[in-house]
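Try this one yourself first.
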């Protein structure tokens, strides 16, 4: 199996399919095709609809695993599901009281294992299954999946295959003992762990789309044959579990995941409400039909009965979601000031940089400092969807874990220092750590308790930051001899590769030589240096193609250069980030009036000032106006005046049209024919684009253009 590359239109497939799954569950409890064909109804409700519950479980497992299945994440899931279950128990208490309450022992059994109403079994099953799956996942998915599959096979014997296994008296006795506690084996012990773990595995490995589509259709056909055969044999105690159901679900889930992009929170909420509320709707439809004398139409005609239940449940659920969303209104992303991220420009830059890197050299996307202010999670997801970039770099352990939590697969290199006592986190999240010194490597190896830590060795070739000095061959050899380090690469960093000054070029070439000399000596001694990488963005811009496995692209990936200095070869890269803000107010001042803190701006003519909702807390210098700062309004440049406030700044719009409240000011980027370049803006701020973009304020919202 390999990572799938998306083709064609994508959409929130996982969330949207929840609605279909909820509809299928409704069909299970209403049998809509029974009046016309018993066989067709069996296929719909006892075969096809059996994908619904496993799908819900796989979605939960997928999001629980994204990056690693943490204990805290499990606790949050249990708490949320437990509260939902408690509310559902109370919701169906009137129906249980009407039907007659069970004995205390039976009530406890139902509460813990079967659910207090016939469809509520899913919630305690999801909680118990989550605990079991999490414990199994501590062994690693390769060991956990077979263990969960064994539980599923045991449960299968108490479900669709009961008539076969019960022919053996010892097995029949064993299952009868199980049934004393668990009325069904489609529960959290036997069924839920496998599908939770299959969903978790899908967060890392995905089947190619065409293979998934063909596999789903074939396995569904085979499962249909299995269902009808078992029905013909009359061996089913229940019909919730099939031998081919996990195979069918793996293909279906991977097919949906291959088309999945973004989220549909409304579909997610509506589907859960439909699942929880449809039994109440069944009761109300039946009761209403009896009161109105319409039993023949709405009860005896099961097709109409299904349509009425489905329509009322979906309508009611949609209304509840709408009302709750209005009660939880949030500020719009473009209400004040925001970063606009052009993902098409990002994809274009990846293609340009990959071509420049040359054959055999892959890109390692540097996502430190929240992807240089572009939003690391969404940037990494966009890169992963494109399918070209399969390696990433972060500055620290926290950043790297956040990428794993966002579902990012492939190599993630931690470029900075991670305390050796946190080595277990590196292993758990499948991260690659930089060896910052020989002594550090020894402590990292000693801190690895369960398995080896994957590392890249940093070689100091003259920057004198992190790394083992290139001339200290014995120190590097000692790292290779450490028992608990899995060395997968070596790299160095060029400290003046962004300069074409003769002395700087000479220094860069000396660094290049030191690095390759070190690598060659180690390889001649039979040591596997793994993936080597030397160039960052300016290595691609100013050096010839290098015989490396990776090029670490940072600032160029985002479509800008660090500064306005010359480069050996300019690339057709497009800026990805624009910074925009709303005009809050336009006021008129007479000659001689002052504005802003310290009365720093004094008018010399009748002046119109726009108050713009961005300030020094958003990453701009307080004296931006004095530095020559400008914004674009209606495609024209307006000078920033006075001192910036924490949250606002003033721009002179006297010579620009009818600027009014609500207009959009562009601080960085393009507006019509106007353009403010990041390199020019950073120069005005007395820095480089790397620092300016990384220093943008955390409260700036993101708007992603796809």
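Now uncover the answer:
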């Amino acid at each position: 199996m390999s990572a799938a590359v998306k083709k064609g239109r994508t959409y929130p497939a996982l969330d949207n399919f929840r609605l279909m799954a909820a509809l299928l569950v409704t069909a299970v409890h209403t049998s809509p095709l029974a009046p016309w064909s018993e066989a067709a109804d069996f296929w719909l409700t006892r075969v096809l609809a059996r994908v619904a519950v496993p799908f819900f479980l796989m979605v939960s497992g997928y999001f629980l695993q994204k990056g690693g299945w943490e204990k805290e994440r499990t606790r949050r899931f249990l708490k949320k599901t437990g509260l939902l279950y408690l509310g559902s128990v109370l919701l169906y208490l009137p129906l249980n009281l009407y039907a007659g309450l069970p004995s205390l022992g039976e009530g406890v059994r139902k509460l813990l294992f079967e659910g207090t109403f016939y469809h509520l079994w899913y919630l305690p099953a999801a909680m118990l299954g989550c605990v079991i799956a999490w414990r199994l996942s501590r062994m690693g998915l390769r060991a956990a999946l077979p263990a969960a599959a064994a539980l599923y096979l045991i449960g299968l014997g108490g479900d669709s295959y009961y008539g076969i296994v019960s022919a053996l008296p010892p097995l029949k006795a064993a299952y009868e003992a199980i049934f004393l506690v668990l009325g069904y084996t489609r529960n959290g012990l036997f069924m839920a762990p496998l599908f939770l773990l299959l969903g978790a595995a899908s967060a890392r490995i995905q089947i190619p789309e065409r293979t998934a589509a063909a596999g789903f259709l074939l396995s569904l056909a085979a499962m249909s044959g299995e269902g009808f055969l078992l029905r013909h044999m009359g061996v089913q105690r229940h019909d919730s579990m099939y031998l081919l159901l996990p195979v069918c679900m793996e293909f279906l889930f991977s097919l949906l995941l291959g088309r999945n992009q973004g989220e549909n929170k409304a579909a997610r909420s509506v589907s859960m409400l439909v699942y929880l509320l449809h039994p109440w709707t069944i009761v109300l439809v039946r009761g209403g039909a009896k009161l109105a004398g319409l039993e023949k139409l709405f009860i005896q005609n099961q097709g109409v009965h299904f349509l009425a239940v489905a329509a009322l449940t979906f309508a009611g659920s949609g209304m509840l979601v709408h009302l709750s969303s209005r009660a939880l209104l949030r500020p719009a992303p473009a209400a004040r000031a925001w970063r606009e991220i052009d993902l098409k420009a990002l994809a274009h830059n990846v293609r340009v940089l990959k071509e420049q890197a040359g054959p055999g050299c892959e890109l390692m996307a540097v996502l430190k400092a929240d992807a240089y202010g572009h939003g690391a999670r969404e940037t990494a997801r966009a890169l992963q969807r494109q399918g070209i970039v399969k390696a990433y770099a972060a500055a620290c352990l926290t950043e790297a874990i956040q990428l794993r939590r966002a579902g990012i697969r492939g190599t993630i290199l931690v470029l900075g220092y991670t305390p050796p006592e946190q080595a277990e986190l590196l292993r758990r999240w499948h991260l690659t750590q930089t060896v910052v010194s020989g002594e550090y490597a020894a402590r990292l190896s000693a801190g690895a308790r369960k398995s080896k830590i994957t590392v890249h060795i940093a070689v100091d070739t003259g920057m004198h930051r992190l790394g083992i000095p290139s001339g200290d061959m014995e120190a590097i050899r000692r790292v290779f001899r450490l028992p608990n380090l899995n060395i997968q690469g070596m790299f160095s960093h060029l400290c003046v590769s962004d300069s074409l000054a003769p002395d700087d070029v000479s220094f860069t070439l000396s660094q290049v030589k030191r690095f390759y000399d070190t690598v060659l000596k180690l390889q001649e001694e039979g040591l596997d240096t793994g993936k080597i990488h030397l160039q960052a963005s300016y290595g691609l811009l100013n050096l010839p193609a290098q015989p490396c496995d990776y090029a670490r692209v940072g600032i160029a990936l985002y479509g800008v250069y660090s500064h306005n200095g010359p480069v050996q070869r300019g690339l057709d890269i497009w800026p990805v980030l624009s910074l925009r803000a709303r005009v809050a107010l336009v006021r008129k001042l007479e000659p001689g009036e002052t504005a802003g803190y310290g009365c720093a701006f004094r008018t010399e003519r009748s002046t119109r000032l726009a108050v713009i909702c961005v300030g020094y807390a958003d990453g701009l210098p307080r004296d931006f106006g004095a530095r020559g700062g400008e914004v674009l309004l209606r495609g024209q440049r307006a000078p920033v005046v006075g001192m910036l406030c924490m949250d606002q700044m003033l721009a002179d719009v006297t010579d620009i049209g009818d600027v009014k409240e609500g207009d959009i000011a562009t601080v960085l980027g393009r507006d019509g024919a106007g353009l403010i370049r990041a390199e020019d803006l950073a120069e005005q701020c007395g820095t480089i684009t790397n620092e300016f973009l990384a220093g943008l304020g955390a409260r700036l919202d993101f708007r992603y253009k796809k």
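Discussion: The first strand starts at residue 337 and ends at 342. DSSP finds 27 helices and 20 strands in the chain.
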